[in-house]
UniProtKB/TrEMBL annotation:
It comes from the Bacteria. One of its GO terms (molecular function) is ATP binding. It comes from Limimaricola hongkongensis DSM 17492. Keywords: ATP-binding, Nucleotide-binding, Transport. This is ABC-type multidrug transport system, ATPase component. Pfam families: ABC_tran. InterPro entries: AAA+_ATPase (IPR003593), ABC_transporter-like_ATP-bd (IPR003439), ABC_transporter-like_CS (IPR017871), ABC_transporter_ATP-binding (IPR050763), P-loop_NTPase (IPR027417). The keyword ATP-binding applies. Residues 5-234 form the ABC transporter domain.
């Protein structure tokens, strides 16, 4: 089955000469959730804008559902729902009219039951007759999400959908995302809440300086780049490491009360057995041992640092 979104050698250079995207290629399969991570200015929003037909590419091609977003804009855009970062709503219109109007723009037949379900999912039903100008920022964000889903898109873009909003909205948002996943909707999101990407995304894409650094399944990325850390609590603090303990991956905690050993769980040998033997030989007394895995945030920060950001 061909990808629902296909980006080939996409570039975007602005009139002043700034290149926001450079040779980006990305295939997104139907029904998957992919999270795009990258520092501010990395090109995430520009990429989404180009796919949605908001920004004209300087080069390359983009297809959504087999439709070129430039040559066949209407058909491509008809498949897309977009929740932008910026809140832009008709302030004097009611929540209900805002959402119903957007559905009409996509030439969908009237379906009040469907829209009611959307508003209930997003805890907006009680606010349906309120004017947008009367709503809180979080409620306005919910209206944006309802508008993006009003025409039943096959591809949904969420550009920082939960940035600066309350915990309740975040829970509502991810509940809706799970339901959409079950219905086969493809979801592409950008987020600064990296733990959310780790929890919900099938694949993770990392963008830096307008280039895709990698796109991998979340669990494979964690396994390939994730490290495990062994923390050795000592009965008494230690000063400089004894010569017999100096090795790659072993560090002394700032207070000297613990030693921290970082290792690859998939390596042929972790070196833990030898380390513990050397600890015993050195005369240091162990009080406790604990292990932890690298988080996606740590992996992301490491990748961006390697790219010079």
């Amino acid at each position: 089955m061909p990808p629902i979104v296909s980006v080939k050698d996409l570039t975007k250079t602005y009139p002043g000469g700034f290149t926001a995207l450079s040779g980006v290629s990305l295939d997104i399969e139907e029904g998957e959730i992919i999270a795009l991570l990258g520092p501010n200015g990395a090109g995430k929003t520009t990429l989404i804008s180009a796919i949605c037909g908001i920004t004209m590419p300087s080069g390359g091609t983009i297809e959504v559902g087999g439709h070129d977003v430039v040559r066949d804009y209407r058909r491509a855009r008809d498949l897309i729902g977009l929740v932008p970062q910026e809140i832009a709503l008709e302030p004097f219109s009611t929540v209900w009219n805002n959402v119903r109007f957007t559905r009409g723009l996509f030439d969908r037949p009237r379906d009040d039951a469907y829209l009611e379900g959307l508003l209930r999912d997003l805890s907006l039903w009680d606010k349906r007759d309120a004017k947008v100008m009367e709503l809180s920022g979080g409620m306005k964000r919910r209206v944006l999400i309802a508008k993006a889903l009003s025409h039943g898109p096959r591809v949904l873009f969420l550009d920082e959908p939960t940035a600066g909003v309350d915990v309740e909205l975040r829970k509502d948002m991810w509940r809706v995302v799970e339901r959409l996943r079950e219905e086969g909707v493809t979801i592409i999101l950008t987020t600064h809440y990296i733990e959310e990407a780790e929890a919900i995304a099938d694949r993770i894409g990392v963008i830096s300086r307008g280039r895709i650094m990698l796109v991998e399944r979340t669990e494979e990325l964690m396994r390939r780049l994730g490290k495990k850390e062994l923390r050795i609590e000592l009965s008494e603090p230690v000063g400089p490491l004894p010569d017999g303990l100096r090795r790659d991956g072993l560090e002394r905690a700032a207070d000297g009360q613990a030693l921290i050993y970082t290792y690859d769980t998939h390596a042929e040998r972790t070196g833990i057995t030898a380390l513990l033997a050397d600890l015993q030989a050195s005369g240091l007394q162990l009080a406790d041992l604990s292990t932890s895995n690298s988080s996606l945030e740590e992996i992301f920060v490491g990748l961006v640092k390697e790219d010079g950001q």
